[in-house]
Amino acid sequence: MIHDLIDLGRYPIDCPGSRAYDQLIADLRRELDKDGCAVLPGFVHVDGLTQLLAEADAVAGQAHRSFNRTNAYFSQDNPELERNHPVRRFFDRSNAFVPADNFRKAGPLRRIYEFEGFLPFIRAALDEPEDRFFRYDDPLADVIINLVEDGQGFPWHFDTNNFTVTLAIQNGEEGGAFEYVPNLRSSEDENFASVASVLDGNRARVRTLELQPGDLQIFKGRYSLHRVAPVKGARRRYVGIFSFVEAQGMCGGVERTKQLYGRVLPHHHARAGLRKDELLD
Ligand SMILES: O=C(O)CCC(=O)C(=O)O
Ligand SMILES: [Fe+2]
User: Fold this and answer.
1) Residues in the chain with pLDDT values less than 70
2) I need a labelling partner for 233 at 20 to 30 A (CA). Which of 27, 29, 90, 134 fits?
3) Is 127 a domain residue?
């Protein structure tokens, strides 16, 4: 069972159909409808965290680092636009991802991801149909840890995937807040003027979440501009990332996987075609 990791008293994800479960789902849906973000504080309890932290420390040395410069859209520069246009504003991005094959089946992070009640719970919270919600079939990327070190963060961006499910495992000494501007753009309107204003430092609509170790976050990042503020100090920020996709058998592309994880497996070559390259953008 999973009670040694998850606070099932507070989050009865093992009891679908119970009143407490239905209430929890209703609350999460309301939060997600309102601003695309739901946080479950203390989803992993203190004893569970001890296990997760030990696992994270043990595999941190396996992280693959990659660097690039990116705009908020993960797109190319467009020299025809004026110099200050958000599409033309590039920021440094560095990643250190611990690939998924470092997380053993019997280890705490993968046990949460593969717990039979976890996917249906996340799917219900997101109100996604059963035939469009699957675990990622990528042995290097299905469940990973993102490690953020002194001076690093994740610059302002919109996700290219619909939702992200993350678990805070350890915070840096300072910084590392999750900042977001709910619904800054829509499928009809890019709202470039407001995006530019946030990039210029306008904080009026910015919300700040200081997630604590053990908190689970469900975030719909396609329309909400967001960033991770730079982390300061010697202690690394660890976040677990659980990936779910809309088609069975989806796997990362060969080039993208090499870039993010430093290597590929035969599985990636075999699955080339059924891809979800944009994951984690
Ligand atoms: O590390 C986080 O808290 C979220 C990072 C993020 O925005 C992303 O992976 O798209
Ligand atoms: Fe994001």
Assistant:
1) 273-281
2) 90
3) yes
- What total number of domains does the chain contain? 1
Q: Is 217 in the pocket of ligand 1 (CB under 6 A)?
A: no
Ligand 1 pocket residue status of 177, Cβ below 6 Å = no
Residues 132, 36: Cα–Cα separation, whole Å: 19
Assign residue 145 the CATH number of its domain: 2.60.120.620
Distance CA 29, CA 93 (A): 32
Express each pLDDT in 220-241 by its tens digit. Answer: 999 999 999 999 999 999 999 9
- The confidence score (pLDDT) of residue 1 equals 87
Domain membership flag for residue 281: no
For the Cβ of 178 lying below 6 angstroms from any atom of ligand 1, the answer is: yes
Distance (angstroms) between ligand 1 centre and the Cα of 171 equals: 14
Residue 225 identity: L
207 in a structural domain? yes
What domain range includes position 244?
Answer: 19-271
What pLDDT score does 275 carry?
52
